[in-house]
Amino acid sequence: MTLSRARRLGGVTAAAVAAGLLVPTAAVADTAPAVTGTAQGGNANTVKACDPVADPTWIGRTMDGPALNVKVTGTAARFSVWDVTTGAEEPVFTGEANAGYNQQAGLTVPKLLDGHSYAWHAWALQGTQTSAPSADCHFTVDTTGPTVTVSSTDFPASGKATKYAGQKGTFVLKGTDPAPAGGESSGIACFRYAWNYIGVAGCDAANAVEPGDDGTAKVDLKVLDWGSNNLIVQAIDNAGNVSQTTYSFYAPSNPNPPKTLGDVDGDGVADILLPDAKGNLQYIGVNATDSTPTTTIPANRSPRDGSWAQLQVVHRGWSDAHAPSMDDIFIHKPGDAYLSLYRNFDYGSFTQSMTGASRSTDCVDDSGQAVPCPADYAKNWSKADQIVAFGPVTDATSPSLLTLENGNLWLHAGGDFSFGFQKVRKLTTSGAWSGYDLVAPGPDAAGNLALWARDRATGELHAYPVPKKADGTFDFSALADPKADVVATGFTTAAFPTLGSSGDADGDGKPDLWAVTADRHLVMYSGWSDANDLGALN
Asked: Are 430 and 460 in contact (CB under 8 A)?
């Protein structure tokens, strides 16, 4: 399209410009003119600056038509719009708008044709004076929304699922963006997906995926609920138009769920739970060959401070009685009076509410007889410097926690933590445990327990046996002296800021250590030797 200079100047001569009566072209817009349009449903507000060289920006379905805006040095602006697709000489729209706040002037352009490309520019007005026009801006209108369909052979809509709730299924998202007669379509930019409620976001969201050349995308999603499920999928085109569909299917419950001590996400493998650099919580299976997480829980699902980074996330203390069989999770921030308990009915996804884990006031002695609680026993969890899930002490289904408080070890075992029914036992009285990091590897194949601890001053690793006696109780006498039972050296806090165990990772019947190095590599051990570096953590 070729426009005459006279038409671009709106009938004002170049001599007037030279005489300084008009605002020069460079001063028409202190910032580049922009075209805006709000997409269908308010899903995305597009604001595109004018770029005479780049491809035309796409403008989607709007209430009153695309909005054109300029920042002028005068009191008003005049706009003209031409249809590039038809090549017509005369503008399809002209209009004026007063400059308001921050010298912005703008208006909307109605009745533009779907699929057509347009050019526009503006003049600054000051009384009877008119500036030279701005550079041409371009946009293309796409008011036809895309379409999207969903299918899955793992969880078909027919109800004949081949997998169970708690397992991942592949869902195929297919979209089209039809072009109007005589025009163009912007094409699908992405799909967004979510269970039950999708919210408002664009293609930069974490739950967005781009289609391939064939217009499809595949996503592998863990189905969290048995029974009816609704997967909501949106297709968003490059103009910001949104179409949405709901894919409903039935996921049966697993009649024989895997039961593995330490499993949080329901895949039958014990898990290591560690925060990533952004405060998200990542799950890494103990059989992993690298540090890639199997599941990542967003930071905003943390019960404290919008991050998992400073929290103790404790599990693997027992075999769960509820189905599906997965570890419940305790969460504590050092110094807090409260301990959070997450009843894990959703495969470790933290989509349900948490309860408080009550602090019992029922203390017992070494023989299990009720006694008054010692004077140094705190009424809440604020004195618990460390908390570990110790192992099944009273029965196979009741959790037990070991806390380090004022240099001594306390055992909280049996009953329901929601109501403070557990019994509390003071295991040590020397106050000598303050300089140690506790690690609880859980039971061995024979049901015996142990406590591991790292001396922070020396880097020595200790392993204290807590054998199961013939009457079913446990012998805690090895915990009297924290300096005893050195099994390894070199585990300094400088080299390994974090140590932990998720039980028997290599299948040899003995629990294994894991560590995070100073440069955030995850290292797995066979027992506490034969280091295997799995690579850098996120």
From this structure: no
Dist. CA 295–CA 273, nearest whole Å: 10
Determine how many CB atoms are found less than 10 A away from the CB of residue 522: 21
Give just the sign of the alpha carbon dihedral 8, 9, 14, 20. Answer: negative
Strands 137-141 and 57-59: parallel
Residue 145, φ and ψ in degrees, nearest 5: -70, 155
Structure tokens at 74: 């005068």
Peptide bond into 324 cis (omega under 30): yes
How far, in Å, CA of 252 to CA of 88, rounded? 62
Say how far apart CA 15 and CA 25 lie, in whole Å.
14
Task: Give the C-alpha separation, 421 to 413, whole Å.
Answer: 9
Rounded to whole angstroms, what are the CA distances from 538 to 221, 256, 356?
21, 33, 30
pLDDT tens across 127-168, in order? Answer: 888 888 888 888 899 988 899 999 999 999 988 999 999 899
pLDDT score of 95 more than 50: yes
- How high does pLDDT run on average in the chain? 87
pTM of the entire structure?
0.73
